[in-house]
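Deviations from the work plan: none for this task. Representative record:
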Amino acid sequence: MSDALWYFARGSGVISLVLLTVVVALGIGSRSGKPAFGLPRFAVSLLHRNAALLSVVFVAGHVISLLFDPYAQLRLFDVVLPFVGNYRPVWQGFGTLAFDLLVAIVVTSLLRHRLGARTWRVVHWLAYLCWPVALMHGLGTGSDNGTWWLWTISIACAVAVVAAIGWRLSTGFSRFPARAERQVAPRLRKELEEVR
Amino acid sequence: MKLHVDWTACDGRGVCTELLEEMLVEDDWGFPVARDGQRSPAVPPPLEGAAKQAVDRCPMLALKLIAR
Amino acid sequence: MTSVAEAAVGRVERRLLDGELGLDAHLARHGRLPLLDGSQIIGMARDSGLTGRGGAGFPVWRKLSAVAEAGDGSAVVVANGAEGEPASGKDRALLAYQPNLVLDGLQLVAAATKARAAHLYAPKAALAPLRALLEARRVAGLDRMSVTLQAAPDAFVSGEESAVVSALNGRGAVPADKRIRVIQAGVGGSPTLVQNVETLAHLALIARYGAGWFLSAGTADEPGTFLATISGAVRRPGVVEAGYGVPLGELIAAVGGATMRLQAVLIGGYHGGWVPADPALPVSRQALEPYGASPGAGVLVALPAGACGLGETARIAGYLADQVAGQCGPCINGLPRMAATLADLAARRPRAGLAAEAERLARLVSGRGACHHPDGTARLVLSAMRMFQADVAAHLNGRCLATEGYR
């Protein structure tokens, strides 16, 4: 039974990483405003959201299975408090940190119509921290680190995200390169001044 | 129901023009234009579901459905 | 720019700008404000048919009662003297010559809405002299509500209602989305009344002389007088007061007449429309409607026969494109493109579909912004394309009727 938990924890962790990679790539793709990966824009957006929700399910499975796993010795507060674990505290801590960030990003996204675009966007930028931290967690901890297949998966994930970021930063990213940037005119930005 | 665009938020990402192509087209710069030329175009009942999805999916939260 | 017509001619009147300068002269001439309660003030605004003089022409009493109802003691009132329009000088003139009427009016709307705060928002230069006046009024016991003076940035859109509120909230004078209106949630989130300074001055006179007196000027549908700022090819450009419906010729005569034959007049300012220079044309909303124009904030620019209407319109469109707030995509992209298209037309750089393109862009930007800046700019361009139709045809053939003396 405890072996089953350990296998499940490892498998769900790897699947989570792959899903998060898909989420990040689709998120960058949806930012472009172009149909990305052969999908219409709204489909990119929906897939981005649904893959993210699915990754939450796998991450939850990953964490819960480890809570009951006798080898991992994960305590309840290790789930939220990073870098204080018994087993490889730094590498496990990355996992905790990525988990916290993921929860923040998902919760604010689910509530974004209530929170407003600005708050939501600021938190959403944490995705660029969450994903590499999750990647490092996978590479550094567990009994699969150093295996050829985990390296292959991790490198494939990294290539996907780096390629997406490269596309994001390229000149061909925007649909309308000639479009004027929306920016408030400095003449209107003046501080309010009371005449006394 | 009518579709209201907050132009101070809209960034012309083009999700709404895909979901509501019966109502909206893109202008020269990718910002939505109502086909009927109205400031806040009326949403015909068959499109209400699509309109709700457009409001939900707008990456800038620039769309609202308003009564009136 | 702020010269004031000296004598009443025909239907040109002197109500707002008449009288000597100073608080003593003001009190000697008009006396103190009568004590009126909120419903009396709103009732008097309704009976007089007073409309906003900032350009939109909305009935004052409606806004007053909406803010009074929504405010419930927390409302904020703002006298708006931010005159971003370069061709307008009437608010500056009013604040320079008869600021007491504006301040009286501000007290009236503060009382009518049971406001908790009152602001006067205007260019800094116009506010500086008012500091001492506010002190004198306080000493004389004239102002129940203290007034803060807030400097408005010198920019075209800085006087737009939601931009005024945004400026007072410390977020810059940028127009806001209108889904939530400032009469519901404005300064500090409170229901807010923003009224043009001229509107408030009218209210101060109505409080003393009655709605009936106000109704004795203007037309039945558009009662009262308005301040007009007249510039262009006239002898003494400046500010004139007249009742709505005043013939265009009388307004021009009041500023010394035209310096040369006129071909057209821009009415309603840079967001207005071109009308023929017909001296008999009444300046009223109703009479100007067929031309797509309206008196707006009373701005008139007289175009002489030798000047090219397309060139002048292109110059104004370029200015307006430069004055976009920068928030709304269709405006920040569309206005420069529209202005450039018009500039090509004005400079006789014809290409296939040039005129149609200018009109297409004007229709494209209309109604697609947080404020009416794109709509107003489009209105000006469309009215120029109509009014100067013959010039458009000539320009497309490389000719200019005006500068070649055919007009």
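Chain B has a mean pLDDT of 94.
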